[in-house]
Design brief:
The chain is an alpha+beta fold. It contains 11 helices and 12 strands. The protein has 2 domains: 205 residues, Ribosomal Protein S5, domain 2, CATH 3.30.230.10; 170 residues, Alpha-Beta Plaits (2-Layer Sandwich), CATH 3.30.70.890. Helix 2 packs across helix 4 and helix 3 packs across helix 4. It binds alpha-D-galactopyranose (GLA).
């Protein structure tokens, strides 16, 4: 979204809802797409996501009438919510839907000793929901920045990411890792973020692929079991790690695996194999990005998908079909170097490496499989607060 051209529309939409006067600011947070390193973050592993050029905006202004309340309106869903600055609930209420992300974030800040101040929040943006671009992490991060600014406080990006993750755990019921919230906060334009989820060390990896770009294709489906299966995978990995006397699968060696081989179920074995090989692929991918080695990047995307589909069992028919279609066309016209499911799985999106000029024909050809649409990705900057 171009803030310069949208400024007056946004301002008048805000004022129509909350009245005029006062300085309106905007917390702006991008969506994310993960290039590689899937289901590794909560296993203390490596990930390589980018922020995308689609955003959630939270326009905000200090409260006037009722200083102890936070009033929220979402333009996208045409719904409102209101809660006290002293706290909301201990946990999420499924009936609150989207408002859980806002309330959960507010509560996570309160839990960290932030004294919230009243304000009016207006949520808008051009980041589609449920398209595998982590609109939830963007909403949490933009909300957190708006609430912190209203409270006259600041928080470093990493603790902020953990606060947003807590909102997701406690209020949305998904025990997600730390990848989404970290990249939404820390991303740099034209770079991917290499994040080590064990040490939390980060490195910005430049993306300079001449004539090639990453793109996402959204299946448009989201299977009901996504949340519960996600938590189940996490539990399987935690069980395997516990048998290995490790907190996460990060420290697991081949020797340790050999020693406990008989105690793991066949599916636990496959889960561990995915996590260990995926960590390796992340390192190889970052190196190939630096070399601009398109063929290797494509091969790693393909290998990641096979591993996610067979070993980790988080793909689904629609994702497999879309990946197969992209690859089949790529084999014919060399427009696509590789493709894989991205994000949590069980629906959602596929990320592919394409010749930039081939994107329009691919987007047209994939329409029957990418019912949620497609998007050429521009690696973008992380979240920030701007004046409107
Ligand atoms: C979701 C979670 C992330 C990560 C991915 C899978 O997007 O929010 O933390 O676990 O799934 O890699």
């Amino acid at each position: 979204m171009d803030l310069r051209t949208e400024r007056s529309r946004l301002l008048s939409a805000f004022q129509k809802r909350f009245g005029s006067g006062g300085q309106v600011r905007a917390a702006i947070a991008p969506g994310r797409s993960n290039l590689i390193g899937e289901h590794t973050d909560y296993n203390g592993g490596l990930v390589l996501p980018i922020a995308v050029d689609r955003h959630i905006l939270v326009l905000f202004r200090p409260a006037r009438g009722t200083p102890a309340r936070i009033a929220v309106y979402t333009e996208t869903l045409e719904a409102r919510d209101e809660f006290s600055v002293s706290g909301t609930h201990a946990a999420g209420d499924p009936k609150l839907h989207w408002a859980n992300y806002v309330r959960g974030t507010a509560q996570a800040l309160i839990n960290r000793g932030i004294k919230l101040k009243g304000g009016d929040l207006y949520i808008t943006g051009d980041l589609p929901r449920g398209a595998g671009l982590s609109s939830s992490a963007a909403l949490e991060t933009a909300t957190a920045l708006a609430l912190l600014t209203l409270a006259g406080r600041a928080m470093a990006p990493q603790p902020l990411a953990f606060a947003c993750q807590e909102a997701e755990h406690r209020f949305a019921g998904v025990r997600c890792g730390i990848m989404d919230q970290t990249v939404v906060g820390l991303a740099k334009p034209n770079h991917a973020l290499l994040l080590d989820c064990h040490s939390m060390a980060t490195r910005h990896v430049p993306i300079a692929l001449r004539g090639y770009s990453f793109a996402v294709f959204d299946t448009g489906v989201r299977h009901k079991l996504a949340g519960s299966e996600y938590n189940k995978r996490r539990a399987e990995c935690e069980h395997a790690a516990a048998l290995l006397k490790q907190k996460t699968l990060r420290g697991v060696t081949l020797d340790a695996m050999l020693a406990i081989a008989g105690s793991l179920t066949a599916s636990e074995h496959r889960r561990v194999r995915h996590v260990l090989t995926e960590n390796l692929r992340v390192v190889q991918f970052a190196a190939a990005l630096a070399r601009g080695d398109v063929a290797e990047l494509g091969a790693l995307l393909d290998a990641s998908h096979e591993s996610l589909s067979r070993d980790y069992a988080v793909s689904c028919v629609e994702l497999d079909q879309l990946v197969a279609q992209l690859r089949a066309r790529g084999a014919r016209d060399h427009g696509c170097a590789g493709a894989r499911m991205t994000g949590g799985g069980f629906g959602g999106a596929v990320v592919a490496l394409l010749k930039t000029s081939a994107f329009p024909p691919y987007a047209r050809a994939m329409k029957p499989y990418a019912k949620g649409g497609s998007l050429l990705l521009t690696p973008s900057a992380g979240a920030r607060v701007v004046r409107l």
